[in-house]
Design a protein that fits this description.
Elements: H1 2-44, E1 49-53, E2 59-62, H2 67-72, E3 74-77, E4 83-87, H3 92-119, H4 122-166, H5 173-217
Antiparallel strand pairs: 1-2, 1-3, 3-4
Length: about 220
């Protein structure tokens, strides 16, 4: 009794294994057909013909895109004459209107590439900003000290001049020349300090713009 039961189980197991083997064999047999079907489907999607309709509504078909295709707009067709893609007609007026915007985009793109190359990221730009402003500040401090020295010297020169006036003496030519040079140097120094202040503000504003742009690209 037990032997018959075992034989039945063995028979059922063999039937299940046989079904699996048959199923796997069928799948492998169909694989080339599936691949071929996929390849054919991809090939079908490749444009074979290009069709446009002229001003009279007449269809014109060719194997390549001509100026008239671009002018009127055209359809890309597969080998079965099915539409794959539609392309709008070229609009010269629209193209002219969009030209400034495209030029601006091209300039912005070029500028962005230069910023990336020069600074890499906003953190690097912030460090360079700090260094640049620190350098200008140091220069301003130095020039202001020089101006103070010129002012101190002028007080001394003016006292000497007034002493000559008090005594009724003629002011020596050398002292007059010194006073004139001192005045010119003070004017030049003030103008240079003002230019440094302007450079500081411009540098700060320029780096702020650069950092903002880099952050926008990050």
């Amino acid at each position: 009794m037990l032997s018959q039961f075992t034989k039945k189980l063995t028979f059922i197991g063999l039937k299940q294994v046989s079904k699996k083997i048959i199923l796997i064999t069928c799948l492998f047999a169909q694989a080339p057909l599936i691949i071929a079907a996929t390849t054919n489907s991809q090939q079908v999607q490749k444009p074979t013909w290009y069709r446009y309709y002229d001003s009279k509504g007449v269809a014109n078909i060719s194997t390549n895109v001509t100026p008239n295709h671009i002018r009127y707009g055209y359809e890309a067709l597969d080998q079965n004459m099915q539409v794959i893609k539609r392309n709008r007609p070229y609009n010269a007026e629209s193209d002219v209107r969009q030209a400034p915007a495209r030029a601006a985009q091209a300039r912005q793109h070029e500028s962005d590439l230069k910023l990336k190359k020069a600074y890499t990221n906003s953190r690097t730009a912030a460090i360079k900003k700090r260094d640049a402003l620190t350098g200008i500040k140091k220069q301003m401090v130095f020039e202001q000290e020089q101006l103070k020295q010129l002012q101190t010297d002028r007080v001394l020169f003016v006292r000497q001049e007034r002493e000559h006036f008090r005594k009724g003496e003629t002011v020596p030519a050398k002292l007059r020349t010194t006073l004139n040079n001192n005045q010119k140097n003070m004017i030049a120094k003030k103008e240079y300090i003002q230019s440094l202040q302007t450079r500081y503000r411009n540098t700060e504003a320029e780096y702020d713009r650069i950092i903002a742009r880099l952050k926008a690209m990050e």
